[in-house]
Design goal:
Elements: E1 6-15, E2 20-23, E3 27-33, E4 50-55, E5 58-61, E6 66-73, E7 77-84, E8 88-90, E9 93-107, H1 114-118, E10 122-124, H2 125-150, H3 155-160, H4 164-178, E11 187-202, E12 212-216, E13 222-231, E14 234-239, E15 247-250, E16 254-256
Antiparallel strand pairs: 1-6, 1-10, 2-5, 3-4, 3-6, 7-9, 8-9, 9-11, 12-13, 12-16, 13-14, 14-15
């Protein structure tokens, strides 16, 4: 039985029928046959022919002979991921973010891949963390760029934690839909919690009466206008051409024309 934080540990046989096998809490033992495959690949090892039997946690006797065994962690493996975002353009300015998320790495179909069973010993926590860092970081950038860019989320909402649950669910969705992992062909993550802090890199131009601006309408289109007044986080704008009467618009939907 493996000691320490392993997500999977390989043991090479042969293992005979009736041989004692201890499976610790939180792990499952899988037995495989087909030892000839292990020396057949010049690039490394190929997986055995097939999996024959599985043991749950507890003390057992091997059900039948096998050539290879693997202890695999069943529950999610806790991994803390830290990521620094690319530049994020929002209506409030250009920001850079630092994200720390508590993730759980889940094994969905661990034995669908050759690479795991080609390892000499197994996969430890640090292996998984290093492998997840880049794809999780890409998912974070994708989600923040879209939601902050459209105004669906705000800097304050994310930093305060008010939108953190939405953020965690969105990262899970993007990662789990597009996952391509170094070790696994069908893994997933769950994110119970996280925190984000932002650094302002470039503030937007200040609005003032007389400023020429573009106004983003509810339909997503942008229209030229001139600011007439500023009050309580809103701008009174007169649209070009005079076809519509002046209107109060929340400042986050108004951007200065440089």
């Amino acid at each position: 039985m493996p000691d320490g934080d392993w997500i999977a540990v390989i043991v090479r046989g042969p293992i005979s029928a009736g041989q004692p096998v201890a499976v610790g809490a939180g792990y499952r033992f899988h037995a495989f046959v087909g030892s000839e495959a292990w020396s057949a690949s010049p690039e490394g090892h190929k997986k055995p022919d097939r999996m024959t039997w599985t043991l749950e946690a507890g003390q057992h006797l091997a059900a039948e002979p096998c050539d290879l065994g693997a202890w695999v962690r069943v529950a999610g493996l806790p991994v803390v991921i830290e990521s620094h975002t690319n530049k994020l353009t929002t209506r409030a300015g250009v920001y850079e973010g630092r994200v720390i998320i508590q993730t759980e790495f889940l094994l969905a179909d661990v034995f669908g891949t050759v690479k795991l069973l080609g390892l000499s010993t197994g996969i430890a926590v640090d292996d998984v963390k290093d492998d997840m860092q880049q794809p999780v970081g890409i998912a974070i950038d994708m989600v923040l760029s879209e939601r902050l860019g459209t105004g669906a989320w705000s800097i304050n909402g994310l930093e305060s934690g008010a939108q953190m649950n939405d953020f965690c669910r969105a990262i899970e969705d993007v990662y789990n839909t597009n996952r391509v992992d170094k070790y696994f062909t069908s893994t997933a993550i769950r994110i119970p919690n996280g925190q984000i802090s932002f650094t302002l890199l470039d503030a937007p131009a200040l609005l003032a009466p007389g400023s020429r601006v573009m106004v983003t309408a509810p339909d997503g289109n942008r229209y030229p206008a001139i600011v007439q007044q500023i009050a309580d986080g809103q701008a009174l704008v007169a649209f070009a051409g005079g076809g519509a009467p002046p209107r109060w618009v929340p400042s986050q939907y108004v951007s200065a024309i440089e």
